[in-house]
Structure formats: structure tokens, C-alpha cells
Inverse folding.
């Protein structure tokens, strides 16, 4: 059974009179995961029917994708589609699945680059493959095998994402040529931006000429556009939204996306393992050169800046040293400035959304997104 033949059984927006942002997200997530399970099961059967050994790879993708996750990006695509008057909910489900599988691909590769031990409370893909290599007593380097296999797993998820997005563009009656072209361009741009942004973030710590605007551009490309703006754009484009709606809606998404990543940087520096999934100063130890760190280095005194630079990327820091470094960031005023940037973006995003002529239920979800991101602690 294809995605097109297996529509959502219920519409999370049919209950127009009630439902908070969280309720709508939970309902949509349950339906999306049902679709993911069915589609991935079909692909697994197709591949293993031809090559039985392929199940060693494909089964792990099933397990990875179906771990608990917010499914926020596909939900944004879906509810933006409805907010802009899209009525055929089945028409965008393949695109929603594509966005989630694109996210899976990026997470798998991101975990390799970050040398992350866990993802969503379970071992990361490269460590699962490494352990399998050891258990089987295979020759060679288990670490290299784990990373290489995980790269292929991510590549497979990317292939699936491309297949699903192509399926979303095939319908009867056909989409107008210009609309289909804009959709293809938006999805391709989304992929290219996040990959480029990931590289820029990965190399930022080695570059000493970066300005605050450079770092804002990095977070826009790596997360702001990819996490919020582009999914919203895709949903609006599938609904055929006019530019008079699409452009301010895109601006809303960009503002919320920037606020999302700036807040994430604060959590990565000052959060705790129970709430965020990493210890206090986790981003400091990993060596992430964020706007928060840049602001602190620009404002701190000479001795403080020297200590902070020494701590950045030092995996051997003791808890007391991490505390001193995070205290330097606080005393520099950088954290307060980033908090103010988050709040100003949320306020402007709320203003833009309030002026847009959108369908009520989709608009309710997008408005709830602002409050949800403002209050989140992970």
C-alpha cells in the first residue's frame, strides 16, 4: 500500500472548537507515526525481497525513525497547509513524511560529527553498528565500521525523503507547473541550506574573523530556516498561498526559527541533563562557537576571555572549570542579550501572524508554536 493509498484516518483539525497546540501536535504525531510505520514497512519488504542481507541496514532505519520524536517539522508543514486553506489533507502527507526522513538523515550524520553517545535516550546509530561489529567478531576497526555504516543509513533516509517528496508532487489533476517548480526549489534549498549551515557551524570555532551577523547567518541556515521557515513555506506552497500571504508567513517562520536556535544555544550552555539531555556547559565542551559565545568573548575582560577560549572545546574540563566558564558568559551580559533577542523575535513573529488572514485552526497551531518555543526547557 502506498502513502497515497493510506491517508490519515482522522484529521487533527476536524475538531475546530478545541485543542491546544500540544493537543494538535500529539494528535498529528500519532497519525504521522502510523503513516511512517506503514511506509517504512513496505520499503523494507521491497528491499529485503530482493536482497535479504539489506534487512541489517533497513531494520535499523525503522528503529531509528520510530524512536520518540516531536515531529515538529512535518506538523508545521501540515498546519501551514491548512492555515492557508489547503483542504486535501492526504495531498501533503508524503511531503510531511519526506521532511521527517530528511531530519532523520541529518540527525544520523550530526551524531557522527558530534561524537554523540545517545539520541532520544538510546545509543546513536554509529555506536549501534560499532557494537554489532564487535559482537560478530568481524575484522577491522569497529569504530570505522560504525561510522561508515551510519553514513549509509543516513544516506538511505535521504533517498527515502527524496522519493516521498517526488510522490507528493504527483497528483491528479496535476499541480500547475509554476507551483510544482517552486515546491521543488523550496525543498532543494532546504536541504542545501542545512548542510551548508552544518559545515559553517562545524568550522566556526576555527575562524577568527566571524562577526555577530556571520553567526546569525549560520544559525539561520543550520536551524532557523530548516526547522521552521522552510516547512511552513512548503505547506503554504502546497496550498497555493499567494505571495501576499507567503512572504509574511515566511518572515514569521524565519523569526521563530532564529528564536528557536538562539534559545537552543542557551539551553546547550545553561541547561541540565535531566531537562536538555546534556550536562551544563555541554555546548562549551563540544566547542560550539555560537552567537552566545561570540557575544561573551566580545564583552568579557581580557582574563575572562582567555579563560573562556581555553575552555571552549576542552573535553577534559572539570565541573568547577565548566562552572567558571559559564559564569564568565553570564557576567559578560551575553546571556541576557541573547534572551532579549529571543523575546524580540517572538514578539515580532506574533505581530506578523496576528495580521495574516489565515484559517483559524492552522493559525491557532502556529500561534501556539510561539508560546511553546518560548516556554520549552529542552
Amino acid at each position: 500500500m502506498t502513502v497515497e493509498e493510506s491517508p490519515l484516518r482522522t484529521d487533527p483539525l476536524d475538531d475546530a472548537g478545541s485543542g491546544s497546540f500540544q493537543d494538535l501536535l500529539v494528535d498529528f504525531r500519532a497519525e504521522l507515526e502510523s503513516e511512517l510505520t506503514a511506509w517504512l514497512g513496505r520499503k523494507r519488504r521491497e528491499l529485503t525481497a530482493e536482497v535479504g542481507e539489506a534487512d541489517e541496514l533497513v531494520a535499523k532505519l525503522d528503529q531509528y525513525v520510530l524512536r520518540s520524536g516531536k515531529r515538529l517539522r512535518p506538523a508545521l508543514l501540515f498546519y501551514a497547509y491548512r492555515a492557508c486553506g489547503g483542504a486535501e489533507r492526504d495531498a501533503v502527507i508524503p511531503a510531511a513524511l519526506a521532511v521527517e526522513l530528511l531530519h532523520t538523515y541529518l540527525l544520523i550524520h550530526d551524531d557522527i560529527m558530534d561524537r554523540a553517545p545517545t539520541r532520544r535516550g538510546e545509543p546513536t546509530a554509529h555506536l549501534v553498528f560499532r557494537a554489532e561489529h564487535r559482537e560478530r567478531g568481524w575484522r577491522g576497526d569497529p569504530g570505522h565500521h560504525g561510522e561508515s555504516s551510519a553514513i549509509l543509513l543516513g544516506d538511505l533516509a535521504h533517498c527515502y525523503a527524496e522519493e516521498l517528496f517526488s510522490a507528493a508532487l504527483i497528483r491528479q489533476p496535476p499541480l500547475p507547473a509554476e507551483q510544482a517548480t517552486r515546491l521543488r526549489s523550496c525543498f532543494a534549498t532546504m536541504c542545501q541550506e542545512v548542510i551548508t549551515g552544518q559545515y559553517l557551524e562545524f568550522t566556526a570555532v576555527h575562524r577568527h574573523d566571524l562577526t555577530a551577523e556571520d553567526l546569525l547567518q549560520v544559525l539561520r541556515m543550520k536551524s532557523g530556516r530548516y526547522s521552521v521557515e522552510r516547512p511552513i513555506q512548503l505547506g503554504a506552497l502546497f496550498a497555493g498561498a499567494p505571495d501576499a500571504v507567503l512572504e509574511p508567513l515566511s518572515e514569521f517562520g524565519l523569526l521563530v526559527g532564529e528564536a528557536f536556535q538562539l534559545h537552543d544555544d542557551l539551553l546547550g550552555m545553561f541547561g541540565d541533563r535531566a531537562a536538555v539531555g546534556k550536562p551544563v556547559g555541554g555546548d562549551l565542551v563540544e566547542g560550539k562557537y555560537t552567537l552566545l559565545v561570540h557575544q561573551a568573548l566580545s564583552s568579557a575582560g581580557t582574563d575572562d576571555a582567555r579563560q573562556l577560549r581555553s575552555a571552549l572545546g576542552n573535553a577534559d574540563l572539570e565541573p568547577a572549570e565548566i562552572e567558571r566558564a559559564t559564569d564568565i558568559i553570564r557576567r559578560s551580559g551575553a546571556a541576557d542579550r541573547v534572551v532579549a533577542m529571543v523575546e524580540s523575535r517572538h514578539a515580532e513573529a506574533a505581530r506578523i501572524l496576528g495580521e495574516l488572514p489565515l484559517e483559524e485552526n492552522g493559525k491557532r497551531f502556529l500561534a501556539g508554536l510561539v508560546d511553546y518555543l518560548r516556554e520549552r526547557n529542552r
